[in-house]
Amino acid sequence: MARKFLYFIALLIVMVIAALLALRIWSAELTRFAFVPRGPFEAQQPLRAGFYDDPAMWVSRPGTANDPAQYRPEGTPAAPRGKAWVFFIHPTSYLARDHWNGPIDDKDTRYRTALFVRGMASAFNGEAAVFAPYYRQAAFGSFLVNRPETLKARDIAYADVRAAFHAFIAAAPADAPIVLAGHSQGALHLLHLLKDEVKGTPLARRIVAAYVIGWPVSPAHDLPATGFEACTAPGQTGCVMSWLSFGDPPDARLMIDTYRAEPGLDGKPKGTEPILCTNPLNGGAAPDAPGTANLGTMVPARDLTTGTLTKLGVPARCDAKSGLLLIGEGPDLGPYVLPGNNYHVYDVPLFWANVRADVAKRAAAWSAPPR
Known about the structure:
By secondary structure, the protein is an alpha/beta fold. 30% of the residues lie in helices and 13% in strands. The chain contains eight helices and 13 strands. The chain has helices spanning 2-25, 27-35, 107-120, 148-171, 185-198, 223-226, 253-260, 352-367, and strands at residues 58-60, 85-89, 129-133, 178-183, 207-213, 229-230, 239-241, 245-246, 288-289, 297-300, 307-310, 316-318, 325-326. A hairpin with a 6-residue loop joins strand 12 and strand 13 (325-326).
């Protein structure tokens, strides 16, 4: 009996090892199988005129009850509010594979959206106002394949974001400085907004900075098309901050392969050059920053509904070869670190206090009288 038990334990160990090996070898294939939408693409009509005049179509905006963007983790120091108005585009929160575009009124998606906004957009709430729209986002699985449906789904999502941006600009005071921010899918849409709605317009002069986080940006084929340069100093305005956080050793193949398979904003193929990386610990002033420069990480509760601002000493280094932002071994922030030591979900919480300080410094520099 004891021998049979030992055989059973040995079999379980072999099965676990085999499962871990399969996950390591075929993680991309398994991820695609689990998340890529199965049904046909569903064409959708543009949103009705005035859709974003309805406050219910915003995750966050002034007057929103229990506004997730206005959350302040325990330990956040008090500070006067800045003057900038913030437009934040939330990351992908529709994980189902029933549709290529997530319905705006899906309850589970709205719940996850609020969690992401609480953890990310909250870093920007030291300014005058934060607006974050719901939109018919492209499904998570659509970003794992290169199919015609992928671009169609993104087009629908971007059209919604563009309409929300118009409503935001109409609501903002005509002379208010503006901060633009987006994470993951939201960062992709932000790149297109910069190209289509900001570059070469009077609005460009009002942009404090654009935080294009969690989406690869080509310095040669994306950045010039936005009309903005990369940030190289914490007091600089009218520039772009961008980073993708990975622990050691990093494996970003799934994300980078998808990124390189598509043309840049200029319509040309991307090469193998490093993606844009601006270090959030020093405002892009240098590629490396020690953990002592980290002003505070927002450590989320296991359910992500609350967080505590804690000095964990997380360092950050822009890798010269890849452009990934490497954080060393990486802290234990919860169960949502993705395969390949990808801290995607924690791109902002890792550097929450630094992002907050960075926004405040740039907004103050924009508002300062010329010398």
